[in-house]
Amino acid sequence: MLNNTIHNPDRYMSDLRHILSQGRKRIGLLIGAGAPTAIRVDGKGCIVENDGAPLIPDVVGLTNAVLSALSEDDKQIIEILKPELTGRVNIETILTQVRKLSQAIGKACVHGLDANGYDAMAKRICDEIGKCVNPTLPSNPNPYSEVASWISGTSRLHSIEIFTPNYDLLIEEALERARAPYFDGFSGSHRPFFDAASVSTNSLPPRWTRLWKLHGSLGWKISGENVVRAGGREATQLIYPDHLKYDQVTRQPYSALFERLRSFLTSPDTLLLCSGFSFLDAHICAVLEEALTANPHSAIFAFQFKSLDEEEAVTSMARTLPNLSIYARDGAIINGVAGWWKPGQPQSEDWEAIRHTFWKSGQGTEKGEFLLGDFSKLARFLALTQMHKLDIPGDSDADEIEAEHGPLTTEGA
Predict the structure, then answer these.
(1) In this predicted model, what pLDDT tens digit does every residue of 146-184 receive, in sequence order?
(2) pTM of the model
(3) Whole-number Å distance between alpha carbons of 304 and 310
(4) Which residues does 107 contact at the CB level (< 8 Å), separation at least 6?
């Protein structure tokens, strides 16, 4: 697919640093499920540089964790259901099948359970999902705190908008620790209620971040006919990753949140940075594709963790959408053209240190790698965009940078 085309990462990252440091462009972040896996913790929940487990697991890890926590009876039913599933078997497809049965069979029994039995099983699965995405943000510096630092460190013409399908409260905790104000669509103090009219407006000061939880969040509850933010961490009103979320997304508050994503991308001169997002969510991708087609002056930069050949979902979109750029480990698709990465000549005497924030040089026959597909590396890159002079880790002046931003080495940060 890449042929002999070459893309120079220095050129594109220099342009991106300039855009991010200016504070003039309308900028958004789409933070997917892969982002919290960049934080590695030990058994006590402390961040570690090597080994450790992800703070919140990816879909494979979430599947294993949820299935291991279920009762033996539930496990037996799920083992019977697995051969009936098509494609990848994970907690998403399992939950889809369980809820389909709960809707379809009524009083009839399938594998020993009727509709009520499968409905109860779905709730138990959802409870376990909630437990897995419930960790608090570690107190020491981490990628989320660096994103919050970048957001609050620049005077802007437009609010930063964060879109996420994740249920966790990590970004909320990071913004609150940084004393960075944000609005998530809820109004009030006793039992904040979702106000769709406020979501659609731009009346807040630019220093207020806008945080949109596209699939719901821990702490959301039903109160009468309204969704309220109860202030807890219970998983009672989430759009879980199964077929039902595409039906429920037409209801408030989800329709207002998806409309906000569409409105953001169809506004003039917008840039959406994607991290940890697999582009496998059909409904979100439909909004992205529709908006990019309608507004050629908007752009999406998708920072992907794997190589281009492994990122089939997003590469298929990028072939027909020139304003969707993919920055993968080994190459990129920019303006619809796929190519290998190859750094150029340093742009200044300080550029080698800046390059270190997004590029890992190869040793011997080892090829270099683009780093920003890792959420921790992207968060550090964002945090350092205001700095015009950096020092490569190990240099004598690195302590000054570390005092402000933490260590430049971001392994496990």
Answers:
(1) 999 999 988 889 999 999 999 899 999 999 999 999 999
(2) 0.87
(3) 10
(4) 114, 115
